[in-house]
Amino acid sequence: MAPASLFRIGARGSKLSLAQTRLVQAALAARLGVEPGVLEIVPIVTSGDRIQDRRLIEAGGKGLFTKELDEALRDGRIDLAIHSLKDLPTALPDDIVLACVPEREDPRDAFVSLRAKALADLPAGAVVGTASLRRQAQTLFARPDLKVTTLRGNVDTRLAKLEAGDVDATFLALAGLKRLGLESRAASLVDPEEAPPAACQGALAITTRVDDARVREALEGFEDLNARVEIEAERAFLAALDGSCRTPISALARVSGDAISFIGETLTPDGKKRWQRRESVALGDDRVATARALGARLGGEIRDEAGDAIVMDA
Ligand SMILES: NCc1[nH]cc(CCC(=O)O)c1CC(=O)O
To answer: Modified residue S-(dipyrrolylmethanemethyl)cysteine is at which positions (predicted)?
Structure first.
């Protein structure tokens, strides 16, 4: 007889999403002292997965990957939803809450290439493929002599295209490679001081209904407070910059003891201009409030400084 379901966990059905959802399932089951099987995984197809036309994805923004999960929470088809935090919009619907941020995986980008150990080693004119506007801009900022092109698809597809020689190099989140057991594909790791990753990279989000006390209670103690503090700083930075999908934005906060250090930047898509801030402050008693204030202030400073230069036309 199948065990009774305690909670149903919704997530996108992609390989990476299911891999990270299984990790959460195992860790949460261990924390609650139950068999993993009673936390049932329910794959949910999102508009972002269905729509093949990139322009529609850009028009709909990040919400295209979360709307169906929010609806499944509302309908009671699932009790909690797992997201990559970097794909979660900064503003959530009023009835949905970011209930828990589990332990964060390594936030760094991996440089992946069969031709070079690092970006600096690529020959002039080499082609770096990535669908990420941020990675394109950072590449051109560091190496204006390279070519950038879009490289789409899931992690497997992108690695296959690299192997087929479509591009000379790409960047992938190390966290995703690790969760898929593909860490060995990383030729090197990007130093966040040189090119910070996407805000919230490597972190996962567990969302639920605001009024679901049973789930919120079960998630208490599963949160990693340092990860929460870091992502709150990074999301506040994003929100202050009004991160449209068309603005390359990077942000990384790291908590160490009572201090938080933050590095964040935005660039023009052609990589010709970059606005960057870095700062460390003491966290004090209200760690989340301090982190949010820091991210919001630094994001606001960059917004004021860059002004129209970062409001891109389509
Ligand atoms: N943009 C897609 C995406 N969203 C989350 C991850 C995995 C890493 C993470 O959890 O931050 C990836 C793949 C990538 O950027 O290489």
So the answer is: 245
Tell me how far the alpha carbon of residue 228 lies from the centroid of ligand 1, in angstroms: 18
For residue 8, the 8-state DSSP code is: E
Burial of residue 29 (CB within 10 Å: 0-12, 13-18, 19+) is middle
CB 280 within 8 A of CB 259: yes
**Which one is predicted more confidently, 62 or 21?**
21
Which residue bears the tokens 């379901």?
5
Question: Is the shortest distance between the CB of 84 and ligand 1 below 6 Å?
Answer: yes
Give backbone dihedrals phi and psi of 277, rounded to 5 degrees, phi first: -135, 140
Phi-psi region of 190 (alpha: psi -120 to 50; beta: other; left: phi over 0): beta
Which of 48-52, 89-93, 185-189 bottoms out in mean pLDDT, i.e. has the lowest? Answer: 48-52
The domain covering 224-306 belongs, at the CATH homologous superfamily level, to Porphobilinogen deaminase, C-terminal domain (3.30.160.40)
Q: Which H or E run includes 129? A: strand 127-129
Whether 242 has a pLDDT exceeding 80, the answer reads: no
Q: Which of 121, 165, 125 is nearest to 151 (CA)?
A: 165
Q: What is the CATH number of domain 1-102+204-223?
A: 3.40.190.10
Identity at 45, one-letter amino acid code = V
pLDDT at 111 over 70: yes
The single residue listed with the structure tokens 């008693």 is: 285
Could you tell me which residues come within 8 angstroms of residue 66 by beta carbon, excluding any fewer than 6 positions away? 46, 81, 83, 87, 88, 89, 207
In short, whether 239's Cβ falls inside 6 Å of ligand 1 is no
Q: Is 109 in the pocket of ligand 1 (CB under 6 A)?
A: no
CB 116 within 8 A of CB 168: yes
Integer Cα distance of 296 and 288 in angstroms:
12
Domain 109-189 indexed as CATH 3.30.565.10:
no
